[in-house]
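During the second year of the project, the team shifted from modelling isolated chains to modelling whole assemblies. The rationale, set out in the original proposal, was that interfaces cannot be judged from single-chain predictions alone. As a representative example for this report, we include one of the complexes processed in the last quarter. Its constituent sequences, exactly as entered into the pipeline, are reproduced here:
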Amino acid sequence: MAGASAADVRSILSLPNPSAAGPSQPRKPAAPTERARKPEGISRELYSLIGPSVPTLAAQLAKPRLKQKPNLGGGGRVKWEWREFKNGARGDGLELSHWVKAGSDPDAEYPFAKYNVQAPSYVYSQDEYTRLLEDSEWTKEETDYLFNLIREYDSRFYVVYDRYEFPNGTPRTLEDIKDRYFSVCRKLVRSRPWAGDEASKNQLLSSLTFDKERETTRKKYVASLENRTPEQIAEEDALFIELQRLEQTERRFKRDRDELLRTLLGIESGLPDVQVDEEGLAGMSHEPKKRKKGGNAVAEVETPVSASPSVISLGPAIPKKAQSAKSAAYDAQHCIVRTEVPATTSSSTKIAHQPVYLRSYKLPAPKMTAAPKIAQVLGELGISHTRLVMPTRDNCAQLESLLEAASALVETKKLVDKVDQDIRTLTARLSNRQSEDADGEGTGDAAPTPMDVDEANDPDADADAEGEVDGRAQSVVSTRSARSTRGRRSV
Amino acid sequence: MVNYGGDEVSALVVDIGSSSIRAGYAGDDTPKAIVPTSYGYVKETPSTTEDVTMSDTTEGEESKLASRPRVKLYIGQNGPSLWRENMEVNNPMQNGLIANFDPVNALVSHALKDVMRCDPSEHPILVTEPAWNTQENRERMAEIMFEEFQVPAFYIANTGVLNAFAAGKGSALVIDIGQSTASVTPVVDGFVLRKGLQYSSLPQFVMAHARHLLATPAARRQGISLVPQQLIASKEPVEAGQPPKFTLRQDRVDKTTVSWRKWAEEREVEEWMQSVAGVIDQGYNEQFAHQRGPKHYEFPTGYNYYFNGIERHVVGEQFFHHSRQLVETNPNIPKNLPALITQSLAACDPDLRQVLMGNVVLSGGGSQFPGLADRLNVELTRTFPHVKIHAPGNPIERRYGGWLGGSILASLGTFHQLWISKEEWQEHGRPIVNQRCK
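Output from the structure prediction step:
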């Protein structure tokens, strides 16, 4: 209808249908038969792109089953009409108009009228005023004026204070106004009969309390806070951060200590959390001065901490004092060994502090350099020093002395070897010189270098000192004899 | 409907400012009609026949005022900006207040009837007022609305409060920089704290300063003549900084009034300021200013010049700081912005200061000086630790914040109980305005 297509033109002109369409002519996507075979779920555009050649895709491309669209009732047209309404919150009969749904009730109350709520206000009679509310500072007229303003501005005291202009009255502060209002209300509530229970009355009274003095000082303080110089503010901030840091360290330390005491000794440290904080706070109040004076904050910081190691020592230390023959027997029976806790040193920072440990954790270890040799020695004896099966106190002490002896032996052996070596070198040199002297001036200027010595030594070392080579290789036989003598002496 | 609190009763909102009158429907986000407040008038000779005035009233922009000397008013887009023989230009506003009520009727009528094409007697109308408006003024406005426009209901709201509402805040420190007045208004719970209100004619001073700067010859340029294009017959292009070559329309020059010339030249200065001037956001420093680089500007005379950074930024600096020399020579120099803010806060309760500084709302066309908001932020954070400035990025929202707040307020369902109805006006008369609009 819109215009003859190329096919129509061709049929009119009886031209054959060209197999390849021209570039300008849009190709028909698919023949009607093909379109009929278009599998379900493939969009028409995609199908015309990929054609019928990829039928396996169809399964994957099947339409996802979505939730049914919710019926929002948008089917039918909604009729709206411009209708006048009366606002119940208004005193007069003003009728404004707005759009409402045509079917809605024309006499329904205006939905926003319910938000027109008045705050309850207190009204007093002349009699009540003369009996209860007389005040030398306030006249009845001014009190009336104040109550009217408060009613007008719904107890927004900042606004009331702003608009407060009683003719010929004394200038009032915000606190004066609040004080007068709340005191009058309190008196009224107290004197009038109360319908509800006592608790609700007290609650109401407490909501009407106002401490003028406190408010005034608070406000002065707020004002003074604003008058700080930037330097003061910066210093305060820095101090505050410092304080927080200290408190944090303190708290972490205390937690660790508590945990240790609980798990190892089964007792509570008995220090309440608050104490730490209090210490920190108390520290803050005088800290600025001290910092300025002394300049070493570290010393100040440590004061609360230094008390703590003594707490740790409390566990073992207290029974020791009361040690009697009976307890000694008990200890012996149960293999309890009481050790002297090393006296608390002055520097008891967290790093220096030694927590409670298991004995087996602290088995003595040989020196790093000599370790393999000592291990070899012990291996020859058939002792494994790395894992003590029963690390009792005695065993530990024995092991320690054994290791000590072994390391002493190794050291001595090393020394002996060195001395032997020196002796051999020197004797070799001596014999060399003697032979040179005997030969005359053969190779006189050639001073014997250590290399020469070694080369010269090699043959005779092989020849006459078989045992020395064994010694250098740390022979088992040679060490054993030395160990036995030394070891016995030291133990 | 109740959920978001809106209930539109097709109220109209009219915001009368020094530069323009904004009018539109409540609930819209932009005013439908923006009409310049300045108007032109020609004193008519008594010989004018009735026929002429009759035909004039049918024209859109012109209306007639029946005051003692018969004058013809030219209002709207083609009002003062078209040159007319012996046309004077006047503005009814002074320091943000309506000083002359005679043309207000015609101006509002033009905005409502000619531009918006609506009948004011069918719509409740909300009018704005600055916080320092007098009781007499607001009563007069109510009278005009009820008696002249026959509106069914009327309300007058404070621009400071409305600016806070437009920013979505009940309590805010509203800094409004208009064409003639800059004001700082503390708003708490939707009420203006009158004791903390501060305003000054700072924008006028900035404008005068800019004009002085342009008119006086500088080191490398001559004093610039601000002849408006309406008085120029022809001009030739000249190199930057070269004296302009133009011919005046002598026929017009003779019949141009002083007030029109003044108005036109002020517009030139304003345009120059808007396209070239700015504020250094990190505090003024000649070196900084110089680094900002020059900007090219061509005046109607054909004179063009690359204004360097110092010239461009010394103008905006007048909002924040007056040089000592300037203060000494002008005893009545208006208070600058930091002074206004400090004094306003000092008059507020210490408990409120923190709240107000956390809700600073910047509004008004004068606040759109490039860099002004940033600079204000820098100045305020220097003295107050927690400052948050709300400055809408959308220029319409910034310029017409007062109107926007009115549009929000008048489309609230809970607001409709506050309208002063015609019935109430007739029953109580003028005092109802002050009772209702606190």
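The beta strands of chain A are 80-86, 95-101. The interface with chain B takes residues 87, 89-94, 96-99, 110-113, 115-116, 152-153, 156, 158-159, 161-163, 174, 219, 222-223, 226, 233 of chain A (CB under 8 Å).
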